[in-house]
Design goal:
globular; 12 helices; single chain; 6 strands; about 50% helix; two-stranded parallel ribbon; 4-stranded parallel β-sheet; alpha/beta
Length: about 300
């Protein structure tokens, strides 16, 4: 009799847990897609997968996301364009790895990492966040980091559960990264950020992260670019290096260091350059909220130069 009562209570306990789990699962499934900036990774890869070759693919950080007019390039060159630019802290290795196997013979890929990408390492938190928004991104991470994220899978799942509970009780609440121009809706179909076109610019600090070109990190990233180039050549893919947009005032404060970095790139980078570095130096008035993000007028000027090249 005692055992029967115990089993009955145990069954009731599991039944309650099952109902709660079912309700939670329904809540999670009904969650609207994330509107965060990094969620654009999903749309960019869907476009990259969907479009037939030959395509023009831009690769870079947020300077590429903010600084290219892809529809205009697409119309002028009669080829579909995908702007894969997203976020500098994801690192050079990630932005190359995520497109490497998706490129096809006949494609033209234009690689334009910010100067800071040639020196600063990738940041673990943004890489985790992009995997949360686009789970397939785990394939493009270094194996050690990918294993860490898999081992700690309970963390993003826990965040999803908390979001489901909060939104079921309080309703949907936008996070700090869900506002233009740092939101999913800030991008056009081709992958450019366009929400900032009519927004007022903020004060921009004239900073530019550079280091001496004899740094081991710089040499490692230079070799990574060269490996990417060799792989493109072996597969019938045309690749170019496009120097990123940079603030002229910032460069002038460290002109000798800038010239030494450019000199090393010119000597050792195997990837053909689309244009010179000086052509992509713009006055501070053409930047939106950082020394990498061009305003609409700056984007138009940069696109003009790219089309000429």
């Amino acid at each position: 009799m005692e055992m029967r009562r115990f089993l009955g209570k145990l069954g009731g306990f599991f039944a309650v847990q099952g109902v709660l789990a079912a309700l939670l699962a329904v809540s999670i499934l009904r969650l609207p897609p994330s509107q965060d900036y990094l969620a654009a990774s999903v749309r960019k890869h869907e476009r990259l997968d969907r479009l037939p070759s030959p395509r023009i693919v831009f690769v870079g950080g947020s300077a590429t996301a903010f600084g290219i007019d892809s529809p205009r390039i697409q119309q002028a060159l009669a080829r579909p364009v995908v702007n894969m630019g997203l976020y500098q802290p994801l690192g050079l290795d990630f932005i190359l790895s995520e497109v490497e196997d998706a490129l096809r013979p006949g494609d033209v890929v234009i690689v334009s990492p910010e100067y800071s990408m040639l020196f600063a390492p990738s940041s673990t938190d943004p890489l985790r966040q992009v995997v949360e928004k686009n789970p397939r991104a785990i394939r493009w991470l270094p194996p050690v980091l990918a294993r860490q994220i898999i081992d700690q899978l309970h963390k993003p799942l826990g965040a999803l559960v908390r979001r489901a509970i909060r939104e079921s009780i309080l309703g949907r609440e936008q996070g700090p990264d869900a506002y233009p121009p740092y939101s999913l809706d800030s991008f056009n179909e081709e992958g450019d950020v366009v929400a900032h076109h009519r927004m007022p610019a903020s004060a921009v600090s004239p900073r530019c992260t550079l280091g001496p070109p004899d740094q081991p990190a710089f040499r490692e990233r230079l070799e990574r670019l060269n490996r990417f180039h060799r792989k493109c050549v072996s597969r019938g893919i045309t690749d170019y290096y496009s120097y990123p947009a940079a603030m002229r005032e910032s460069v002038q404060t460290q002109r000798a260091l800038f010239d030494s970095v450019i000199g090393e790139l010119e000597r050792r980078l195997e990837m053909p350059r689309l244009h010179g570095a000086e052509e992509m130096l713009f006055p501070a008035a053409l930047f939106f909220d950082s020394p990498e993000h061009l305003r609409l007028e700056g984007k138009v000027r940069r696109t003009d130069l790219l089309l000429q090249a």
